[in-house]
Amino acid sequence: MNVIKSLFPAGAVALALAIPAVSFAQTMPAAAVDVFIGTGGDGHTFPGATRPFGMVQLSPDTQVRPFRQSYPWASGYRYDDDSILGFSHTHFSGSGHSDLGDVLLMPYSGETKWEPGYPERPFSGYRSRFSHKEEHASPGYYAVRLSDNEVDVELTASDRVGLHRYRYAKGAEAKVMLDLRTSIYDYAAKNLWSRLRVRDNTLITGMRETRGWAAGRQLYFAIQFSHPLSSRSLRNMERDVEYRGFAGPGSGPGDKAVVEGKALVGALDFGVPADGQLEVKVAISGVSEEGAIANLAEMPGWDFDAERVKASAAWNEALGAVAIEAEPEMRKMVYTALYHSMLAPSLYMDRDGHYRGPDNEVHQAKGFRYHSTFSLWDTYRALHPLLTLIQPEQRNVDFVRSLIESQKASPYGILPVWQFHGLETWCMIGYHAVPVIADAYMKGLKGFDAEEALKAMTSSAEYGPYGGLQHYMKLGYVPIDLEPEAASKTVEYAFDDWTIARMAEKMGKKDIAARYYQRAQNYRNSFDVKTGFLRARKSDGSFREPFNPVQSNFGSDYTEGSAWQYSWYMPHDNAGLIKMLGGDKALQDKIDMVFDAKVDDNVYAHMEDISGLIGHYAHGNEPSHHVAYLYNYAGAPWKTQQRLTQVVASQYNTTPAGLSGNDDLGQMSAWLAFTALGFYPVAPGSNEYVIGRPFLDKVVMNLPNGKRFTIRAPGLSKENIYVAGVTLNGKPLAQTFLRHEQITAGGELVFTMSNQPNKEWGQPASARPYTQTAY
Asked: Which range is the signal sequence, renumbered to this chain (predicted)?
């Protein structure tokens, strides 16, 4: 294997870290990814090592103040920081909430410091400074030099195992701090219990039970070392009790092989390795310590370089579903977006098929792989539709069956709302597992029981105690005097209901379809035709007064938004919206007002989730994501093309701050991936993709069915942003949408680009995308 020059220049400490070169051409997809995009600003992504949809997501944590929940550090890492707290094994990619950060390891030499310390006070703890010049990462791999600790660190991962390689200074003792307190949260409020168990001089296991975002979450681990321990010290920091030991359990005075408590830390000493190197494998499990030990078998041996190559190959295979030709910056942005779209939902199942479900009991998966981390309010919009096109059918079956099995085990009998590590968080609104399942079924996904799925969907839609559903079913809307965020809940429930109707109709369930098609019209009950805005109504039928369309607060009429952002949310019935507003021109004019408004910086400053503003359009949050495509429904696709150019140019770039808002487990990235291809799923469940404009010169989609769909855009440039015409398989395309079966049949879509808009294309009603109400 070739060896490249050390990433970390030699200095006073002779740490020559020779990183083996990975044998792939720089034109391979993984080489185009920049994992640091989104690690600054509000992106909340992490740069560490993982596999596609991997259970282990091993990454550095840099939070400035130890043990404190903080919005900017939701993923544990922030590019602006200059010190690293350690390397933990579970992370969210782009969430708006802090959690995870389980099983933190930090290599060091010299004096043991039991607290992480503060970045403004070097050497005040085990934290170490680092430089981005001595940091490198790519899909499946991360490397950094810890300048204070004098250790070079490399990380890679399989699905369930994280592998660390540490290189210490010549003659230095190899030590590792193991901290079960640290997490991307306040440990004093979060840790319910934890345990460290010394199995022998190369194996430590343990667990942690937490009550953070998901109450009662249990995480088990097994840590294996390439060299035997020479000594160890385990401390319960809550009680200030220390237990010292030597090679194995019970081998010294005062030794203790098992320590339990809420604040456990271990200082592990491996003496001076002959080669100055220590490798560490960490397997995790949601089931038991024994399950974690068994998961270690996923990564036999100690060949770090081979595991790194496997991780890179896994990413090249996954990203290879889309072959992109484009100018370098756009190619990097889109491949990075595809990378971020393949981090969740993540595997959450032991090698033997056991997993912990929403009832906190252990279950056995049969015929599928259980996945969790479903940020459904975000990801049903574009992420899951994207994955139906770029992931193997079995992976998508895994997602759907995981949702259905979670409903069976739910104490409430409903599908997940926002689930991670098998447990419900009740975050956000809607029952958006429903459109994920319906969209998959409508697109022909096999491998799950449709009758069982429909039952799970209707059970969720009719569970009265959840989110004001009892009032919604009785009144036709959610009343604001009885339930917060009522306007948003009404329209999101209505969309979910429409997807149930679509699936039921295809299954021949006419009575169910009719009932839910009727419920899908409930969005009208919260739309005020006099003002032209979606508004919250009270239980007596009146709209709440006073009304201010820019007002937005947590728990108010809307969810993370204002009337300006939510008044467009009836993606299944945009013709109905057009009629309520007064016609095509009225819709066009009002969307123009959204984008062109002069909005004071302070209007939305109190809402950290409302970001990426263009007027009132907030691209950093999901309710705005389909708005630019709505011009197509009013016969003006050229305006969609214009606005998409504006959005992509202002909301995405290749810097660490290259995402304008939380990536939200891949939704922000999926939006860019779809938009760059030239189309977007405005209404999942319609089997249609609304055509926008391409941002890539050529794309070949290698579809799950083995066919290829090619997209070309001759003449694409910064000036030529408009679509002069479109052909599909050599024939002119009059419609401003693509049907799913047109893509999966394979073929070629060609955009002819121009610097002038074609204002005739897409005007007739027959050319417009699906909508429940007739034009």
From this structure: 1-25
pLDDT at residue 252 is higher than 70: no
Provide CB contacts within 8 A for 284, sequence distance 6+: 55, 56, 89, 90, 102, 103, 160, 219, 220, 221, 292, 295
Domain-by-domain residue ranges, the chain?
29-315, 376-547, 583-775
What tens digit of pLDDT does each residue of 628-675 get? 999 999 999 999 999 999 999 999 999 999 999 999 999 999 999 999
Range with the poorest average pLDDT among 489-498, 547-556, 684-693 = 547-556
**Do the Cβ atoms of 379 and 433 come closer than 8 Å?**
no
List of long-range contacts for 638-642, beta carbons under 8 Å, 24+ apart: 638/722, 638/723, 638/757, 638/758, 638/759, 638/761, 638/762, 639/588, 639/591, 639/592, 640/690, 640/692, 640/693, 641/692, 641/693, 641/721, 641/722, 641/723, 641/757, 642/721, 642/722, 642/757
The percentage of the chain sitting over the pLDDT mark of 70, rounded to a whole number, equals: 93
pLDDT (tens digit per residue) in 292-309: 999 999 999 999 999 999
121 class by beta-carbon count within 10 Å (0-12 exposed, 13-18 middle, 19+ buried): exposed
Which residue type sits at 288?
S
Q: At a CB cut-off of 8 Å and minimum separation 6, what does 548 contact?
A: none
Amino acid at 629: Y
| Under 8 Å between Cβ of 723 and 734 | no
376-547: CATH class: mainly alpha
Structure confidence at residue 249 (pLDDT):
59
Locate all alpha helices (DSSP H) within 175-321, ordered by sequence: 187-190, 289-295, 304-319
Q: Can you identify the CATH homologous superfamily of domain 583-775?
A: GH92 mannosidase domain (3.30.2080.10)
Q: How far is CA 286 from CA 164, 356, 607, 658, in A?
A: 21, 6, 34, 34
